[in-house]
């Protein structure tokens, strides 16, 4: 798995109530998982619960927004700007999820980017890519980074897999050399998310 730290993101999508959020956070806070030197865990609640989750969540896990507006703030009803997320100390954001197809500006700095490969046929369907399929695509993406960005970025960028990852299939996927973690939807709302975090080791 090279020197890249394993990354597990939980995308809660448009689910839950304040009570559900408390329950999920309690499960996460009580879970025994590998240390933050080994795995980086980020959960992404709906916007309305971001501050609540940030306040309750254990300090070794962090939060992500599920989207943000691509430009500066202004007269854009319903949008939330990157500046607002920074102001609220929300360190991560999911951009360009296939359920939104958001616009992605050309990147000039890859330092804090985690790239997710998510076959659309696998998202929320229960059909997961085989380890060989995931590895083939991740390897291709890394080669693309090598040729189009730089060998250093290709070596350091974490490429994570998403699409029906669960507690049962995470281990074999995590064993692939270019699978550096997961973006998890449905299973991130369940206790098995802890097993997915543990697949880092
Ligand atoms: C996702 O929403 O990014 C996702 C991968 O969902 P699921 O794990 O439910 O397929």
UniProtKB/TrEMBL annotation:
InterPro entries: Aldolase_TIM (IPR013785), TIM_sf (IPR035990), Triosephosphate_isomerase (IPR000652), Triosephosphate_isomerase_AS (IPR020861). Keywords: Isomerase. The lineage of its organism: Eukaryota, Viridiplantae, Streptophyta, Embryophyta, Tracheophyta. This is Triosephosphate isomerase. GO terms for molecular function: triose-phosphate isomerase activity. Belongs to the triosephosphate isomerase family. GO terms for biological process: gluconeogenesis; glyceraldehyde-3-phosphate biosynthetic process; glycerol catabolic process; glycolytic process. It comes from the Eukaryota. One of its GO terms (cellular component) is cytosol. Pfam families: TIM. Transmembrane segments: none annotated. Homodimer. Pathway: Carbohydrate biosynthesis. The keyword Membrane does not apply. Signal peptide: none annotated.
């Amino acid at each position: 798995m090279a020197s890249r730290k394993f990354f597990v993101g939980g995308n809660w999508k448009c689910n839950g109530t304040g009570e559900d959020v408390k329950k999920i956070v309690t499960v996460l806070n009580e879970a025994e998982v590998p240390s933050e030197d080994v795995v980086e865990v980020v959960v992404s609640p709906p916007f309305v619960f971001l501050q609540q989750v940030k306040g309750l969540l254990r300090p070794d896990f962090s939060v992500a927004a599920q989207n943000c507006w691509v430009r500066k703030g202004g007269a854009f009803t319903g949008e939330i700007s990157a500046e607002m997320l920074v102001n609220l100390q929300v360190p991560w954001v999911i951009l360009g999820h296939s359920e939104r197809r958001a616009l992605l500006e050309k990147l000039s700095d890859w330092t804090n980017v985690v790239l997710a490969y998510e076959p659309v046929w696998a998202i929320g369907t229960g059909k997961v890519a085989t380890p060989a399929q995931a590895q083939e695509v991740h390897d291709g993406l890394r080669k693309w980074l090598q040729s189009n960005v730089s060998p250093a970025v290709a070596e350091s960028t974490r490429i994570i897999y998403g699409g029906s990852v669960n507690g049962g299939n995470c281990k074999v996927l995590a064993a692939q050399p270019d699978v550096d973690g997961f973006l998890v939807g449905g299973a991130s709302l369940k206790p098995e998310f802890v097993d997915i975090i543990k697949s880092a080791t």
